[in-house]
Amino acid sequence: MRYEDVLKTLAPCGLNCGKCQAYSEGDIRKHASELKRLLGSFDLYAERFSGFLPVFKNYPGFKELLNQFSGANCKGCRQGDCKYPNCGVATCYKQKGVDFCFQCGEFPCDRTNFDPDLSKRWLAMNRRMKEAGVEAYFEETKDQPRYRDVTDLPARDRCH
Amino acid sequence: MSEEFDKKLAAVCGLFCPACSIFIGTKEDRARLNVIAQRVQRPVEELRCNGCRSEQLCYYCESNCKMAKCAVAKGLDFCGACPEYPCKDLKAFQAEMPHRIELWKSQERIRETGYEKWYTEMIEHYSCPTCRTLNSAYDIACRKCGATPSCPYVRLHQDEIIQHLSKRK
Question: Cβ contact (<8 Å) for B96 and A116?
Protein backbone atom coordinates (compact mmCIF):
# COMPACT_ATOMS: atom_id res chain seq x y z
CA MET A 1 0.00 0.00 0.00
CA ARG A 2 1.18 3.51 -0.76
CA TYR A 3 2.24 5.88 2.01
CA GLU A 4 -0.69 8.26 1.35
CA ASP A 5 -3.18 5.39 1.68
CA VAL A 6 -1.57 4.08 4.85
CA LEU A 7 -2.09 7.53 6.37
CA LYS A 8 -5.84 7.07 6.03
CA THR A 9 -5.96 4.38 8.70
CA LEU A 10 -2.66 4.46 10.58
CA ALA A 11 -2.75 7.01 13.40
CA PRO A 12 0.32 9.14 14.21
CA CYS A 13 0.96 7.03 17.33
CA GLY A 14 1.16 3.88 15.17
CA LEU A 15 -2.18 2.35 16.12
CA ASN A 16 -4.35 1.22 13.23
CA CYS A 17 -7.77 2.93 13.31
CA GLY A 18 -8.97 0.43 10.71
CA LYS A 19 -8.84 -2.35 13.30
CA CYS A 20 -10.52 -0.38 16.09
CA GLN A 21 -14.01 -1.34 17.27
CA ALA A 22 -15.06 2.31 17.28
CA TYR A 23 -14.05 3.05 13.67
CA SER A 24 -16.89 3.62 11.20
CA GLU A 25 -14.95 2.13 8.27
CA GLY A 26 -13.37 -0.66 10.32
CA ASP A 27 -13.62 -4.40 9.77
CA ILE A 28 -15.18 -4.93 13.18
CA ARG A 29 -18.00 -2.51 12.30
CA LYS A 30 -18.45 -4.09 8.85
CA HIS A 31 -18.56 -7.69 10.08
CA ALA A 32 -20.84 -6.76 12.96
CA SER A 33 -23.26 -5.05 10.58
CA GLU A 34 -23.23 -8.06 8.27
CA LEU A 35 -23.84 -10.46 11.16
CA LYS A 36 -26.68 -8.27 12.36
CA ARG A 37 -28.22 -8.36 8.88
CA LEU A 38 -27.86 -12.14 8.63
CA LEU A 39 -29.46 -12.69 12.03
CA GLY A 40 -32.60 -10.81 10.99
CA SER A 41 -35.32 -11.37 13.60
CA PHE A 42 -33.37 -13.97 15.50
CA ASP A 43 -34.82 -12.68 18.80
CA LEU A 44 -37.91 -14.86 18.43
CA TYR A 45 -35.86 -17.92 17.54
CA ALA A 46 -33.35 -17.34 20.35
CA GLU A 47 -36.17 -17.41 22.85
CA ARG A 48 -37.49 -20.67 21.44
CA PHE A 49 -34.04 -22.27 21.13
CA SER A 50 -33.20 -21.35 24.71
CA GLY A 51 -35.69 -24.01 25.84
CA PHE A 52 -33.25 -26.76 24.81
CA LEU A 53 -30.02 -24.72 24.43
CA PRO A 54 -29.77 -22.40 27.46
CA VAL A 55 -26.92 -20.38 25.93
CA PHE A 56 -29.49 -18.59 23.76
CA LYS A 57 -30.86 -16.93 26.88
CA ASN A 58 -27.90 -14.58 26.48
CA TYR A 59 -29.01 -13.41 23.05
CA PRO A 60 -30.41 -10.00 24.18
CA GLY A 61 -27.02 -9.06 25.66
CA PHE A 62 -25.25 -10.29 22.55
CA LYS A 63 -27.58 -8.29 20.36
CA GLU A 64 -26.93 -5.17 22.40
CA LEU A 65 -23.18 -5.56 21.84
CA LEU A 66 -23.72 -6.28 18.16
CA ASN A 67 -25.68 -3.05 17.89
CA GLN A 68 -22.85 -1.23 19.63
CA PHE A 69 -20.23 -2.65 17.22
CA SER A 70 -22.32 -2.07 14.11
CA GLY A 71 -23.11 1.50 15.17
CA ALA A 72 -19.42 2.48 15.38
CA ASN A 73 -19.11 6.00 14.01
CA CYS A 74 -15.59 7.23 14.74
CA LYS A 75 -13.98 8.93 11.74
CA GLY A 76 -10.47 8.13 12.91
CA CYS A 77 -7.61 9.86 14.63
CA ARG A 78 -6.50 12.05 11.74
CA GLN A 79 -10.05 13.32 11.36
CA GLY A 80 -9.80 14.67 14.89
CA ASP A 81 -11.77 11.88 16.47
CA CYS A 82 -9.23 10.14 18.75
CA LYS A 83 -11.02 8.11 21.42
CA TYR A 84 -8.07 7.63 23.79
CA PRO A 85 -8.77 9.77 26.87
CA ASN A 86 -6.65 12.91 26.76
CA CYS A 87 -4.42 11.59 23.98
CA GLY A 88 -1.43 13.92 23.72
CA VAL A 89 -0.45 12.75 20.23
CA ALA A 90 -3.66 13.70 18.42
CA THR A 91 -2.97 17.44 18.63
CA CYS A 92 0.82 17.37 18.94
CA TYR A 93 1.63 15.73 15.58
CA LYS A 94 -0.11 18.57 13.74
CA GLN A 95 1.77 21.23 15.66
CA LYS A 96 5.04 19.46 14.88
CA GLY A 97 4.14 18.96 11.24
CA VAL A 98 4.88 15.23 11.18
CA ASP A 99 2.82 12.21 10.12
CA PHE A 100 4.10 9.89 12.86
CA CYS A 101 5.75 10.34 16.24
CA PHE A 102 9.01 8.71 15.17
CA GLN A 103 9.49 11.44 12.53
CA CYS A 104 9.65 14.10 15.25
CA GLY A 105 12.99 15.37 16.55
CA GLU A 106 11.70 15.06 20.11
CA PHE A 107 10.69 11.38 19.85
CA PRO A 108 10.42 9.69 22.34
CA CYS A 109 8.87 12.43 24.48
CA ASP A 110 6.65 12.29 27.57
CA ARG A 111 3.66 14.15 26.15
CA THR A 112 1.53 11.22 24.99
CA ASN A 113 -0.40 10.82 28.29
CA PHE A 114 -0.48 7.09 27.46
CA ASP A 115 -0.62 4.59 30.28
CA PRO A 116 2.60 2.61 30.79
CA ASP A 117 1.36 -0.36 28.73
CA LEU A 118 0.39 1.74 25.74
CA SER A 119 3.59 3.73 26.17
CA LYS A 120 5.62 0.57 25.64
CA ARG A 121 3.62 -0.33 22.57
CA TRP A 122 3.89 3.21 21.25
CA LEU A 123 7.67 2.97 21.53
CA ALA A 124 7.74 -0.44 19.86
CA MET A 125 5.42 0.64 17.03
CA ASN A 126 7.35 3.78 16.25
CA ARG A 127 10.76 2.14 16.47
CA ARG A 128 9.56 -0.54 14.07
CA MET A 129 8.16 2.07 11.65
CA LYS A 130 11.46 3.90 11.75
CA GLU A 131 13.40 0.70 11.13
CA ALA A 132 11.22 -0.96 8.47
CA GLY A 133 9.37 1.97 6.96
CA VAL A 134 5.74 2.93 7.39
CA GLU A 135 4.43 0.88 4.44
CA ALA A 136 6.26 -2.30 5.49
CA TYR A 137 5.14 -1.84 9.09
CA PHE A 138 1.56 -1.49 7.91
CA GLU A 139 1.78 -4.67 5.83
CA GLU A 140 3.31 -6.81 8.56
CA THR A 141 0.79 -5.73 11.21
CA LYS A 142 -2.44 -5.27 9.27
CA ASP A 143 -3.77 -8.79 9.84
CA GLN A 144 -2.92 -8.99 13.54
CA PRO A 145 -5.90 -8.50 15.82
CA ARG A 146 -5.96 -5.08 17.39
CA TYR A 147 -6.93 -6.45 20.77
CA ARG A 148 -4.29 -8.67 22.27
CA ASP A 149 -2.77 -8.99 25.70
CA VAL A 150 0.56 -7.63 24.63
CA THR A 151 2.12 -6.98 28.02
CA ASP A 152 4.13 -10.19 28.00
CA LEU A 153 5.19 -10.08 24.37
CA PRO A 154 8.68 -9.05 23.28
CA ALA A 155 8.85 -5.41 22.12
CA ARG A 156 8.83 -6.26 18.41
CA ASP A 157 5.54 -8.19 18.69
CA ARG A 158 3.73 -5.47 20.59
CA CYS A 159 3.14 -3.66 17.33
CA HIS A 160 -0.26 -3.64 15.79
CA MET B 1 10.33 19.00 57.43
CA SER B 2 7.00 17.25 57.82
CA GLU B 3 5.37 20.41 56.56
CA GLU B 4 7.48 20.45 53.46
CA PHE B 5 6.35 17.07 52.22
CA ASP B 6 3.49 15.45 53.98
CA LYS B 7 3.01 11.82 53.05
CA LYS B 8 -0.63 12.00 54.08
CA LEU B 9 -1.14 14.26 51.07
CA ALA B 10 0.72 12.13 48.54
CA ALA B 11 -2.08 9.88 47.33
CA VAL B 12 -1.56 6.19 46.62
CA CYS B 13 -2.79 6.68 43.03
CA GLY B 14 -0.31 9.49 42.32
CA LEU B 15 -2.65 12.43 42.81
CA PHE B 16 -1.44 15.41 44.82
CA CYS B 17 -4.04 16.12 47.55
CA PRO B 18 -3.09 19.81 48.12
CA ALA B 19 -4.15 20.53 44.52
CA CYS B 20 -7.59 18.95 45.00
CA SER B 21 -10.51 21.35 44.99
CA ILE B 22 -12.15 19.47 47.87
CA PHE B 23 -8.97 19.62 49.94
CA ILE B 24 -8.59 23.35 49.26
CA GLY B 25 -12.25 23.80 50.18
CA THR B 26 -11.83 21.87 53.44
CA LYS B 27 -8.72 23.75 54.49
CA GLU B 28 -9.41 27.31 53.49
CA ASP B 29 -12.49 27.92 51.40
CA ARG B 30 -15.84 27.00 52.90
CA ALA B 31 -17.73 28.61 50.02
CA ARG B 32 -15.88 26.41 47.51
CA LEU B 33 -16.84 23.30 49.47
CA ASN B 34 -20.48 24.38 49.52
CA VAL B 35 -20.50 24.82 45.75
CA ILE B 36 -19.04 21.35 45.24
CA ALA B 37 -21.52 19.86 47.74
CA GLN B 38 -24.37 21.33 45.77
CA ARG B 39 -23.01 20.09 42.46
CA VAL B 40 -22.54 16.51 43.67
CA GLN B 41 -25.72 16.58 45.77
CA ARG B 42 -24.03 15.58 49.01
CA PRO B 43 -24.03 17.16 52.46
CA VAL B 44 -20.94 19.29 52.91
CA GLU B 45 -19.83 17.23 55.92
CA GLU B 46 -19.32 14.22 53.65
CA LEU B 47 -16.92 16.21 51.52
CA ARG B 48 -14.47 17.26 54.20
CA CYS B 49 -11.11 15.73 53.48
CA ASN B 50 -7.67 15.93 55.02
CA GLY B 51 -5.91 13.89 52.36
CA CYS B 52 -5.53 10.35 51.09
CA ARG B 53 -3.74 8.87 54.11
CA SER B 54 -5.56 10.90 56.76
CA GLU B 55 -8.38 9.89 59.09
CA GLN B 56 -10.88 12.21 57.43
CA LEU B 57 -11.66 11.33 53.82
CA CYS B 58 -14.27 12.78 51.49
CA TYR B 59 -17.08 10.40 50.58
CA TYR B 60 -15.64 9.77 47.12
CA CYS B 61 -12.19 8.68 48.28
CA GLU B 62 -13.73 6.84 51.22
CA SER B 63 -16.14 4.69 49.22
CA ASN B 64 -15.11 4.73 45.55
CA CYS B 65 -11.34 4.52 45.62
CA LYS B 66 -10.08 1.00 45.10
CA MET B 67 -6.39 1.88 45.04
CA ALA B 68 -5.92 3.06 48.63
CA LYS B 69 -7.48 -0.08 50.13
CA CYS B 70 -5.62 -2.31 47.70
CA ALA B 71 -2.28 -0.70 48.57
CA VAL B 72 -2.89 -1.20 52.30
CA ALA B 73 -3.73 -4.86 51.70
CA LYS B 74 -0.55 -5.30 49.67
CA GLY B 75 1.61 -3.27 52.03
CA LEU B 76 2.56 -0.76 49.35
CA ASP B 77 2.80 3.02 49.49
CA PHE B 78 2.12 3.82 45.84
CA CYS B 79 0.57 1.97 42.91
CA GLY B 80 3.78 2.27 40.94
CA ALA B 81 5.48 -0.21 43.28
CA CYS B 82 2.95 -2.95 42.52
CA PRO B 83 3.74 -5.87 40.19
CA GLU B 84 0.27 -5.41 38.68
CA TYR B 85 0.90 -1.75 37.82
CA PRO B 86 -0.72 -0.37 35.70
CA CYS B 87 -3.81 -2.41 36.64
CA LYS B 88 -7.19 -1.95 34.99
CA ASP B 89 -8.66 -0.19 38.03
CA LEU B 90 -5.99 2.50 37.85
CA LYS B 91 -6.31 2.78 34.07
CA ALA B 92 -10.06 3.30 34.33
CA PHE B 93 -9.60 5.83 37.13
CA GLN B 94 -6.92 7.76 35.23
CA ALA B 95 -8.97 8.04 32.07
CA GLU B 96 -12.04 9.50 33.76
CA MET B 97 -11.07 13.11 34.47
CA PRO B 98 -8.47 15.63 33.30
CA HIS B 99 -6.91 16.21 36.73
CA ARG B 100 -5.70 12.61 36.48
CA ILE B 101 -3.86 12.97 33.17
CA GLU B 102 -0.40 12.97 34.77
CA LEU B 103 -0.90 9.98 37.08
CA TRP B 104 1.49 7.83 35.08
CA LYS B 105 4.12 10.52 35.09
CA SER B 106 3.69 10.97 38.84
CA GLN B 107 4.04 7.25 39.58
CA GLU B 108 7.19 7.16 37.49
CA ARG B 109 8.59 10.22 39.24
CA ILE B 110 7.79 8.85 42.70
CA ARG B 111 9.53 5.60 41.81
CA GLU B 112 12.57 7.36 40.37
CA THR B 113 13.13 10.13 42.88
CA GLY B 114 11.02 9.29 45.93
CA TYR B 115 7.81 10.99 46.93
CA GLU B 116 9.59 13.85 48.75
CA LYS B 117 11.19 15.21 45.58
CA TRP B 118 8.01 14.60 43.61
CA TYR B 119 6.06 16.46 46.30
CA THR B 120 8.17 19.60 45.90
CA GLU B 121 7.80 19.37 42.13
CA MET B 122 4.03 19.15 42.51
CA ILE B 123 3.93 22.31 44.61
CA GLU B 124 5.65 24.08 41.72
CA HIS B 125 3.39 22.39 39.19
CA TYR B 126 0.18 23.66 40.80
CA SER B 127 1.39 27.05 42.05
CA CYS B 128 0.43 30.34 40.46
CA PRO B 129 3.54 31.75 38.78
CA THR B 130 2.48 35.26 39.87
CA CYS B 131 1.36 34.96 43.51
CA ARG B 132 2.44 31.39 44.44
CA THR B 133 -1.04 30.28 45.53
CA LEU B 134 -1.66 26.55 45.10
CA ASN B 135 -4.51 25.97 42.64
CA SER B 136 -6.55 22.95 41.65
CA ALA B 137 -6.55 21.55 38.12
CA TYR B 138 -9.99 23.10 37.64
CA ASP B 139 -8.95 26.65 38.52
CA ILE B 140 -8.37 28.02 35.05
CA ALA B 141 -7.54 31.40 36.62
CA CYS B 142 -5.63 31.65 39.89
CA ARG B 143 -8.12 31.50 42.76
CA LYS B 144 -6.31 34.32 44.53
CA CYS B 145 -4.88 36.79 42.00
CA GLY B 146 -6.80 35.78 38.87
CA ALA B 147 -3.72 35.15 36.70
CA THR B 148 -4.36 32.85 33.73
CA PRO B 149 -3.43 30.06 33.45
CA SER B 150 -3.41 29.44 37.18
CA CYS B 151 -0.41 27.08 37.19
CA PRO B 152 1.83 24.98 34.89
CA TYR B 153 -0.53 21.98 35.12
CA VAL B 154 -3.44 24.03 33.81
CA ARG B 155 -1.26 25.57 31.10
CA LEU B 156 -0.37 22.08 29.85
CA HIS B 157 -3.87 20.61 29.95
CA GLN B 158 -6.12 23.62 29.45
CA ASP B 159 -7.97 22.19 26.46
CA GLU B 160 -8.95 18.97 28.22
CA ILE B 161 -9.91 20.82 31.41
CA ILE B 162 -12.09 23.38 29.62
CA GLN B 163 -13.76 20.62 27.63
CA HIS B 164 -14.51 18.78 30.88
CA LEU B 165 -15.84 21.89 32.62
CA SER B 166 -18.11 22.71 29.70
CA LYS B 167 -19.78 19.31 30.02
CA ARG B 168 -20.38 19.77 33.75
CA LYS B 169 -23.92 20.56 34.79
Answer: no
As to burial, measured by CB atoms within 10 angstroms (0-12 exposed, 13-18 middle, 19+ buried), residue A103 is middle
Asked if the Cβ–Cβ distance from A115 to B86 is below 8 Å, we say yes
pLDDT in tens, B74-86: 999 999 999 999 9
Distance CA(A138)–CA(A103), nearest Å, equals 16
Pairwise CA distance, residues B79 & B104, whole Å: 10
Query: Nearest Cβ partner of A115 from B91, B157, B160?
Result: B91
Alpha helices by DSSP H, B82-151: 88-96, 103-113, 115-126
pLDDT digits (tens, 9 = 90+) for A105-137: 999 999 999 999 999 999 999 999 999 999 999
Q: Residue A26's CB: how many other CB atoms inside 10 A?
A: 22
Task: Report yes or no: A86 and B101 within 8 Å, Cβ to Cβ.
Answer: yes
- B3, pLDDT greater than 60: no
Any B CB within 8 A of A85 CB: yes
pLDDT in tens, A10-22: 999 999 999 999 9
Measured distance CA(B164)–CA(B100) in Å, rounded: 12
Of B86, B98, B157, the CB nearest to A116: B86
Alpha helix locations (H) across chain B?
A: 21-28, 30-40, 59-63, 67-74, 88-96, 103-113, 115-126, 152-167
ipTM: 0.73
Q: Is the minimum CB–CB distance between A103 and chain B shorter than 8 Å?
A: no
Site from A95, A113, A120, A149 to mutate, B interface, most B CB atoms within 10 angstroms: A113
Q: How confident is the model at residue B94 (pLDDT cuts 50, 70, 90)?
A: very high
User: B interface mutation test: which of A115, A149, A151, A152 has the most B CBs within 10 A?
Assistant: A115
Cβ of residue A117 closer than 8 Å to a chain B Cβ: yes
Residue B2 has pLDDT above 50, yes or no: no
